Structure formats: C-alpha cells, structure tokens
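Working notes for the structural subgroup meeting. M.R. asked for a predicted model of this chain before we commit to crystallization trials. I am recording the input and output together here so anyone reviewing the notebook later can reproduce the run.

Input as submitted:
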Amino acid sequence: MFDKKTVISTRFWSVFVASTASMISAYILTLTDNIVAGQFVGDDAVAAMTLILPVFTMILFIAYLISDGLCMMISYAQGNNDREEVDRLFSLMIILAVGSGIIFFAALYFLREELLSFWEISPHLKFYAEEYYSGIIFLALLNIINISIYTFFFTDGMERACLVASGAAFVVNVILDIVLCQYIGVRGIGIATTLGTLASILLQLYYLTGGRSQVHFKWYWNLKKTWQGIVYSFYHTVDTLCISILPVLMSMEVINYFGEEKLIVVTVAVNLMTLILGIYTGLIDCMQPMTCQYHAENNLHSVIKTMRLVMSATVTISLIMTFAGMIFADFLPIMFGVTDENLADEVAVAMRYFLPFTVFLGCTQMLGNYYIYIEKMNYGAFIKILLLLILPVAAMFFSGNFALTILGRFTMNIFWLSIGSSFLAAYLINYFWLKGRAGLLMIDPKNLSRQLSYDINATVEEVTALTQKIDEDLTRRGVDAKTKNKIVLCVEEFGRHATERVKENIFQLEIAILLNDKITLIIRDNGEPYDIIKTAQEGKFDFREFFIDGVTENLITRNYISNGDENRVTLQF
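Returned structure, recorded in token form:
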C-alpha cells in the first residue's frame, strides 16, 4: 500500500509529514509546559494546569468551528474549479477569526472567577490554576487567527508554510518556558505559549503576502455561508468538543473515587492522549482536502484510494505508538515530576492498560470524519460522539459500580481498561451497523462501476501504454468511437506534455474517467503549477499546447485549477 508512488500518495505523505510535524511540535510544547512546571515548580502545578486544559481545548474548538467548515467548503470549491469562491471563503474565514477571537478573549476576561471557581480544589492548587490562566488570557484571540490560516494552508497545498510557522512557535515557546518559569513561575509558562503563537502568526502572514500564496483577501461578508461553515465545522470539530469535556469528567471521576492526589494520573493520560490525537489529526488534515475535492468531483476511485492510505497509515502508526508507549511507560511519570514510587508505578501500569486500544480510537475517528466529508454529517458526528464521549463516560460509570459491587474495589487499572475498551466497542458498533448496508466507506457500487481510474509516472513509455489501455477499456464500455478517440487523444497529449515538463524528478499523473450521461475526464499531475490552456490563449505556446487548445476548445467543460504543487484539468465531453 505504501510502495506505489501516485499523485494521491505523494500528496498524502507530503501533507502528513508537515501536519504531523506541526501537531507533534504542538504536543511537545504542551509537554514542555508540563515538564518545565514539574521540574521547576512541582507536580501540583502540573495537575493544576491540567484543570485549565479544557479551557484551552475549548479555545481550539472555537478556532476549528470557524476554520474547518469553511475549509471544507474551500475544498469543495476547488473540486468545482471555482478559484474566486476560494478567495471569498478565505476572506470570510479571516474576518470571522478576528471578530470571534476578540469576543472570546472578552469572555475569558470577564468570566475568569466563574471558570476558576468550577473546581472544588485546595487553595494551593487553585493558586497555580489562576497563575496559568492569567498567562494564556490572550491566547484565545491569537490561537483562533493562527489555526484559521494554518488550516487554510493545508487545504491549499502550502504545507511548508505550516512547518516553518510551527517550528518558530516551538523555538520561541521552549526558550521562554524555561526562562520565564524561573522568574515568574507558572504564569510565565502561559505567557511563553502566547508569544509562541504570535510568532507563528507573523510567519504565516509573511507567506500570505508577496505572491507566495495564490489566495487573495477581499472584504466579504455572507451570513448564509457563515452559518453553513459553522454547521460544517460543528460536525467536523465535535470531537474537539468531546475531548474538551472528557478530561473534565475523567478528573471528576478520579477525584470522586481515588482522591485529589491521583489527578497526576489523569494528567499523564491526557497528555498521552493529546499526542495520539495530535498524530491522528495529522492524518485527518491529509484526508480532509483530498476527500472533499474527490467527493465534489464524484471521483469515487480516488476517494477509496485516499481512505486505503489513511486507514493503513492509522493502523501502522497506532501500533508503533502502542509499542513505544509500552516500552517507555516507566519514564512518563518522571517527566511530569512524579517522585512517589508507588504513584509512578501506578501511572505506568495504567498507561499500559490503555494503550493497546488506541488503534480502535484512531480507525473510528478517521471513519467518523470521513462520513462528514462525504456529507453523511449526522452519522459521522454520532460516531465521533459515541467514540469520544458517550461510551467512555458509560464505561467509567459502569466499571466503577461493577468493580465495587463484584470485586469490592475499584482501581486505576480497571478505570483505564474500561475507557480503552470503549474505543473497541465504538469501532465494532460502527462496523457491524454498516456491514451489509452501505459498506464501511458508503460507496455506491453502481456509481463506482461507471468510473475508471489510472495512476502512472510522467514517462513516454507509461503514457503510451496508458492510452492503449484506455482505448481498450472505453471500447469494452461501449463508448462511441468519436468520443473515445477524443478522450484518448486528450490523455495522450496532456500526458506527453507532462513528460516534456519533467526536469530532474519524474512526477506522477492520475487519470479519472467518469462515464455518466456526459463523460468527464479529470487529469491530475503533481508537477509544478502550469496552466496549458491559459498559456496557449496568451499566445505563449509551443505546438503541443496549440494543439491541446484546439482539441479542447469546443468541449462542454474545460477548466484548470492548481493548489500547491498539483495541477488538475477537467474536461467534459
């Protein structure tokens, strides 16, 4: 699955590397905050910061509530070859990000006491919680803007900008964490996070200006599209909302059954879960623009190829993380400043009970998001809520009562085993519900049978072989000779043009043919952006470009669009 290089796999791994690096750096920043607090202040400071984490996660939820839905719409617009709509939606997203960031900052400022008084904790822990809260008070405004631009960059194929921006945030945050914590304690850690986010925004703005991005900002407002984007976002980010609620309920359950001193176990588990979900988010960032674009094209073979990559990568990465976590579980408590040996052992064993179930967490989360991208919104949201809230909460409640009734005692190991088992239950419920109905990917087999898809390298030999195969396949499908010859000619000429553009590195082509009432030919390559049709119309052409322009001039549809290093031509016969 991973050895064949195609347009889809090349883009997938390019986005995955950039997205995962960004997500891991974001996780390491959170981890660094906790490690610095644990080493310079104590594990009580770490536990107090964990209590503020849901506030931070809620900020992320608001940020993604703005950006994710509009970026889904941007991907659909790209799939429909509408670059002007891309500009409008991007502009709307930025305006909403700034406005909502200001509102959210005001809410955090004026509701400070109400939010901090939610926990019935000792004054010692509350002091650290107040200090950290003060340090991140401006983070809402900055983070919403940062995530909006960041999410758009991944949608538009600008992964490199995300890597640079996240790298800058990492360097600034880590240095200031250590320096400021020594002088002003836990508040300094919050300030370091805020300044790191500011550094990321400044670099992203640099990439947005000076012709580095194809998007253009314009003052634009549309209430209907705003609401549509928020609805899409809610479905997409409902898992972020669940993840902000789940640690609160876990902390309450632990305090209720095991006491305040065991909160550090939740801290370690939440940090580990944040790392795992961060890596899964990297996969989701790959899946979102590709799946949405292919879905908008009704290009089902490419949807399936994308999801095969996503699921294979999810399983592989989950097993690697589980194996690594099992080995290094004993080191986790030390990183968070846990000095009590019994408590450290309890943390390590609890993590080993939890980790084997992460593969089901990842696979079910991928499928839940996938259903949303193919516009099965209600079902996708239900699966994610089931996975990340309903079943874990039910598992915590029933395992506690069951253990106390049957075994006479309730341990942290049983607590984490029950939460892990809930992920397996969610996967099985989804699998058996869809088996025999729509299938796990909900692909219509009749529609799929009317489509053809091919992946080749941009070489003369492979282009020649492909044209012969397409000729044979279209003949078997009963396509009339005139239309068939036009399709074969277009594939050959665009393919030959791609081979002539190859310089040092051979790139790939993907050919999709949708055999509906009007036959659609979609030609993708992952070479440098190059609009053959525009070049020919401007008079800057060679003979092949002149010939391509003449052959395609009278077709029903003839569109070109690029994003990142990917070209797509859509022709309709």
